[in-house]
Amino acid sequence: MALLTFACQPSANNGNSDSEDNTTISAVKVPAFNADSAYAYTAKQVSFGPRIPNTPAQEQCADWLIQTLRPLADTVYVQRTTVTGPQKTALPCINIIGVFNPAATQRILLLAHWDTRPHADQDAFDKTKKLDGADDGASGVAVLLELARQFHREKPNIGVDLLLTDVEDSGVSEEENSFCLGTQYWAHHPHVPGYKANYGILLDMVGGRGSQFYMEATSQQYALGPMKAFWDVANKLGYSDYFRYEGNGAAITDDHVYVNTIAHIPTFDIIALQPSGSFAPHWHTENDNMSVIDPRTLQAVGQTLMQVVYAQPF
Fold first, then answer.
1. Hey, which residues does 163 pair with through a beta bridge?
2. Pairing of strands 107-113, 90-100
3. What is the value of pTM for the model shown?
4. Sign, Cα dihedral of 312, 294, 49, 118
5. Element (H, E) at 2
6. What confidence tens digit (pLDDT) does each residue in 277-293 have?
7. Where do the structural domains in the chain lie, given as residue ranges?
8. Which helix (H) or strand (E) holds 187?
9. Kind of pairing between the strands at 2-6 and 199-204
10. Where would I find the beta strands (DSSP E) of the chain?
């Protein structure tokens, strides 16, 4: 994942939810998101070690993800392929898709990557060391697994597809499109031929302590409507400290780019950024470990997702 631009551009909404948001929280009963469960799912992924393509941890974590999702989803698809990484390196890729209510025509795509950056290239001391990827990868997947657990207990009325993508973080800035290789493969070869969803939501770095989620520029370009609606729900639920309406000019090369441009599904990115547009300080460093994960952040993201899926999806 790399920063594409820090262009100065007008924000989608420079006000706050009280003055500019007319969203009313639905009276539909929405299950409670369990942040402790999501925290445990994060820790479990980290316990396998760095989930780097072509390592035992990749296979071990993939097997666990598949075995965890299969009893919960109506259908689970596993895409095993080989993608071409930087310097034409062949990288094994394992995408995992959990489908809920497969017959429903109205659908939401929720996705997160589960692999880990091969080295801590942003670390101040040793850029060759490996990192746990607790926030950058594991946190988003953990939220989706907890959603799957809740969906199994009480089915939503719409179709939901959980896409866990691999080989997102093995790219280099010098090679265009070398990031998000699992998502690029899925976008060209969806688990269901002709797959469509009303829109998609990408989770990336959604568990860090004190995280703030700004309205990322590429998301605004392709999916401003559903993103604004999601931010409205989050603010009505009391999570305005996390979900900020103002833009910070950052456009991120992340999985949503390829869902938007290849699969043509409007998709927005929930990703922790600083007001300057930079990533969180632990990004791609050894500090991205369980010490940065905060159940309160997982709760803010997870409960908003629950509210949207069960009560206000469209």
1. 97, 111
2. unpaired
3. 0.92
4. positive
5. strand 2-6
6. 999 999 999 999 999 99
7. 2-311
8. helix 181-188
9. unpaired
10. 2-6, 75-84, 90-100, 107-113, 159-165, 199-204, 250-253, 267-271
